[in-house]
Structures are given as structure tokens and as C-alpha cells.
Amino acid sequence: MSEPTSGETKTPLSIGSLTRDPRILLVDDDPLILESLRRLIEAQRYDVVTAGSGKEALGAVDKKQFDAILLDLNMPDMSGIDVLTSLQERGVETPVIVVSGDSAIDSAVNALRHGATDFIRKPYKPEELLRRISNTLNKQRLEKENNQIQQRLQQSEKWHRFLVNTSPDFIYTLDSEGRFTFVNDRVETLLEYKREELIGRHYSEIVYEEDIFRADHVFNERRSDTRATRNVELRLKCNPGNCRPRAMNGRFRTVEVTATGMYERQEIRFETRFMGTYGVVKDISDRKQAEETVHYQTYHDLLTGLPNRAKFRDYLGRALVHAKRNSQTLSIMILDLDNFRVINDSLGHGVGDELLIHVAARLRQCIKDDDILARLGGDEFALLMPDVSSRLESTVVGHKVVEELNVPIRIKGHELYVTASVGASFAPEDGAVADTLIRQTEIAMYQAKSQGGCRLQFWQPAMQEAFAGRIQIETDLRRALANDEFVLFYQPQVDTVSGAIKGFEALIRWWHPDRGLVLPNAFVPIAEETGIIVPIGEWVLREAAAQQAVWRKNGLPPVRVSVNISPRQLETPDFVGSVMRALEANQLEPGSIELEITENVLMRDVESNAAKLTQLAEAGVLLAIDDFGTGYSSLKYLSRFPINTLKIDRAFVKSPEREGMPIVNAIVGMGRNLNLNVIAEGVENIAQLEQLRVLMCSEAQGYLFGMPMSALEATKLLEEQVHGQEEEIKAG
């Protein structure tokens, strides 16, 4: 055997990311042949391993992986056929080239049947042997690459199917006629169709009828790439035969469809054939539901389900346009419950909410189907009657509303009486702009409320000036505290027998920069309604306590200072804390301040008010009932409060010769029996004072003893009293 005259080109084998020379196992029992083969094959830079017997060959196969095996058939210990059989039993797929001197055709056939890849007879030409080895290795390499490609394709297809079928979107393909050729698993949860139910059916069968026109454009899409249809909103019908409960609308799902045309390229260049459409359907039902919910909440009151102020204004704007176009008239009403806040504060917000729901139901009974009822906020409602013929018709509805709400409502064991102040406007006579009509109607409603409530009031132009003045007062009040425009005046409270000053009532005044001195009745009701009264009341407490501290520091006789407490101030959670802080900041004992509260204020929330006032009384703060006898409380309820003083209203003192004095007598007697201090207000002359002395009323307050005076004048009055007492002592 001679060396080859020309070398064969070999191909390195790739293993993962590594490339190595092919490894070949040579098996022959003849050492000379084995050595010759080794030298021949190694010359081609193959990695060669030799084995002198069949058993040695199998041992080598167990230890290493080979790319080809050259095997002799006739070996003494184990024939080549036995080696082939053992390799098959071991599952070894390495190609085997049989190199044998046996020329019988049966030997070659038998070897090939037992798994040999090729058969070469000895003697052989080196070039032929190397060519056959190279061909075998190339064939093996190509088969491996093909297997790897097939495995990748199978894995890719598996991944593709997994991604398509687990996609949150409904993916489909249609043929050129618009029939489904593929749908993924998502269709079963989205539309509740089985996949096989849709295959072959036309897309129009699942499109909501009102959306067919838009659907025809997207499902028949023939464009591709960037020109294709994207995110077209449609509604697709759910399977009508499925009875399972659905969380969303049972008839359809709202979706966005993105589609592109599919084409098959022809053999002729630039020619294509339209195959159908590929599309992706994204479910946006939850998003649409959320958008609708947000829209509803934006324009509706969640408690009553009625339109809110923004929606009512929109309705009114459209109604005004329609009325102008058709030469029609309309009317709006705005009503506010007169005593809702008392109910809400005394019985809790749960009862208050139930009351508002009942009120909304009653108001619906007063209007026609075409009329609009809205809740503007709090206890304020609005009615829009888009087609009324006259003010008389509107007046009838307004009186019906007042009467309907005047009937008691029973909620959670409470029989509640609510009345309403109703303002009304008539368009276009009173105006043709939505915001103007609403503002004017609210002014009319405030006018009705200021007249005692439980009435209907139409807008009148003269109301504008009064309301503007009210708005100006509110604006000025909000900056009055910051500008230090308030001041306290003091009216003395004296002993009816000795004439000694026992205390002062602190009375607020407002030094307005333009209007001068403003009395409380001109601004306190507005401050109370807007809530500004709370910081004003806290200022009064601090200022009165500071003045007390000045008098004590100057050695003047100890007198109490009475401070009026507003309803809103008493209802604040920090009311007790605000009183105690005013005392502590001025190092005053609690008994130096007396809080004056009317009967009606106490009755607004008996449980809460009793707890707060008891806490203050236990700390030593005094409590007086102002305007006693004019409220509607019972002694049973008053007994729950730690009262120190009863103040008799001036109306009973004003005419002692008439019916007032018996009431004064009764109050003084009750106070004496309960060991309470009694102060009569409004004492203006000696006759009234003499009557009070006869009745043994302990103290009096009024113009007879002094007008409300500045802190400087009150200080002088106390100094004069001290000087007078000193003169009496000297004279005695």
C-alpha cells in the first residue's frame, strides 16, 4: 500500500461552539495493516485511535466518541459482524466503514444489513479509502446539521404555538373569502367559542351588527406593513349558546383589531397572490368599563345616582340652545334642605345619607319624565324643566316640591322633618346663559332661606345687589382676622343688690377699613354659614383670656368673662383643646372664663356636646345657657349638662308689667332651687331692676349699668369700683 499522491480535503466537525478534528477508530488484528492505516489517515490530520481486536474496539467506543470507525470483518476473538451487532445494541450511531479482504458479495451485504455505512475491499487505493472516509464524514455532518435544523424548526414551531395560544390577544387568520382558517386558544375565553366552531365560518358572524361597516374595512384588509390597519375599535359578539355567567356584558366584548394582508409570492417576478388576512384582537372591555365608570363618577352623584353639578350645567346649556331654536321657555329650581345639617350632625352621616336618598326619590315624584333632577352637592338639589309654558306652571311644581318635602320621613326609627328653601328662574326672561341662570337661582334660594325657609322664591333683579353685598362681606371676613380688624367690647354684669361688677360679657365688633364699626348681626350669620366663625370664635377665646390676664396682673378684682360659643365652634373636634389652650397660654384658672351657649345649640348633638362640656366642667370651666326660655329644650335634656348660669332673655325683662315677669319669676325660682346663678339681660331702667331685686334675681346686665365698652373703658370701671370700695373702708 502506497501513500496517496494527492491529499483529501477534510472538514472539521463542530461540537457545540467548539471545532475539532474528526476522530476515527481503526480496528484490525493485523498490526502492519493497522499501522499503515494509522499513518495514512493521520497524514490527513485526523485524530486516530487504533484497536487490535473487537473487544478492544468496543472498550474504546465506551470511553470516547468517534466520528467514523474503520472495521475489519475477520478477527479471531470477535468478528466484525459481532462488533456491528454490539454497537447497535449499545445505541451507537457512529458510521462504520468495513475494510475487509473478503471479496464475497454476501459478506458486503451482511455487513450493510448489520449497520455498516460502507464496504471497501482489500487491497484498496489510498485515494479511494480517503475519499470514502471524507464522504462518510461529510454525510454524517450534513445529517447532523439537518437534524439540528429540524429540531430547531420543531422547537420554534412549538414555541410559536405556545406563544400564540397563550397570548392575551385573540390571533386569527382569514382566507381570501373572509373565513377563519386559524384561531388561537384565546378565542375560547374571549368569545366563548370553541376553536373548531369558528374554523370555516365568516368573520361577520361574530361582529356586532352596528359595527359591521367598520369591521368590513379591517377584516378585509389587503394592505401590509406600515399601511395596514391598526387598533380599530369594534364589538365582537359572544357565543349566544354558552350559558356560563359572564363578568362583562354578556352580548359582546369591546376590542381593538390590528390586521395585515397575507400574500404568496409567485414564480414570476413581482407577482403575488392574496391569501387572506392575519389579525390580532386585543380585549379592551375592562378598559372601556373603567372609562365608563370614571365618566359616570365624573358626572354623577354616587349616593343618589343623580347627575352632578357639571352634568346639570351641561343639560341646562343644551336645553337653552334647544329652547332658543324652538322659541320655547324653560325653568330651573335649586333647593336646599333647611335643617339637614342638624340631622346629619345629631344622628350621624348614615342617617343623613339615607335622608338624601329619600329626598331624591320624593323629588322624582314631583317632576315629569323629561325633566332633569340633579344633586349639586351636600343637601342641594336642582330641577330642570325644559318645556314649561309659564311661570305659573313652574310655581305649581315649586309648591309641590315644598309640600312633598314637608311630610315627615321615617328612617331607622327616627321621624325626620325636613323643609326646603327653593329658588327658581325662568328662561329666557331671567337670562339665557347657563352659569348666569344657576347663579341667579341660587341667590333666590338664599333669599328664601333668609326668610325662614320652607318656601319658593323666584329670582328678582333687586336680589343681585343684596347678594353681591353678602359676597363682599364674606370676602372681607376672610382677611379680617389676618388684618387684625376685630376687637372685643365688654358689657358689665352686676350684682342686683350691691351693684358690684361680677363679670363682663365679651362682645365682638368689626372695625371695617371702609364701613367703620360693624355690629355682630351684620356679619356673624354669614360667618356661621361659611364656617369662618370657627377661627373667629377661637380668636375671641384667646383675646378674652388675654384681657383677663391683664386685669389680674394689674391687681384688679377677679371677675369672670363670658364668651359666646357658636354652633360650628362647639361641633369642632378640637373645641375642648382650643378652650384649654387659651387658658393655659395666659396662666388663668378655668373658672375665670364662662362659655355662653344657647339651648338650641346644645340640642343639635346632645351626646357629643354633653361629653365635651362635661370634660370642660370637670376642668373648672363655667357654662351658661344664653337666652334661656326661648329655645325648645326640655329640663330632662338640660339636666345632662353641667350648667352654672341661666341668662334670662331680654324679651321677658323688657315689659315687667305684662306676661314676661311671671316667666322671669319661674326661671329665677328654678335657678335658686338648682343652686344656679341667674342673670337677667336687657335691664334698661330702675323699675326693671327693682322687680328683679324683689324676685331675688342675683345679677343683671343691660344699658342701665353700661353700654358695651372697650377694654380700656372696662378697665377704668373696675378701677373706679376698687377706688370706691377703698373709700368706703376709710369712711367706715
CATH superfamily placement of the largest domain: EAL domain
> What best-fitting shape do the alpha-carbon axes yield?
elongated
Number of strands: 28
Name of the CATH architecture of the largest domain = Alpha-Beta Barrel
In round numbers, the mean pLDDT is 86
Radius of gyration: 52 Å
Span between termini: 163 Å
Indicate the structural class: alpha/beta
Question: Count of helical segments?
Answer: 26
Beta-strand portion reads 15-25%
Count of discrete structural domains: 4
CATH topology category name of the largest domain: TIM Barrel
As laid out across the biggest beta sheet, the strand order is: 20-21-23-24-25-26-27-28
Instruction: Supply the CATH class of the largest domain.
Output: Alpha Beta
Mind describing the biggest β-sheet?
Answer: 8 strands, mixed, barrel
How much helix is in the residues? Answer: 40-55%
Uncertain segments of ≥5 residues (pLDDT<50)? 1-9
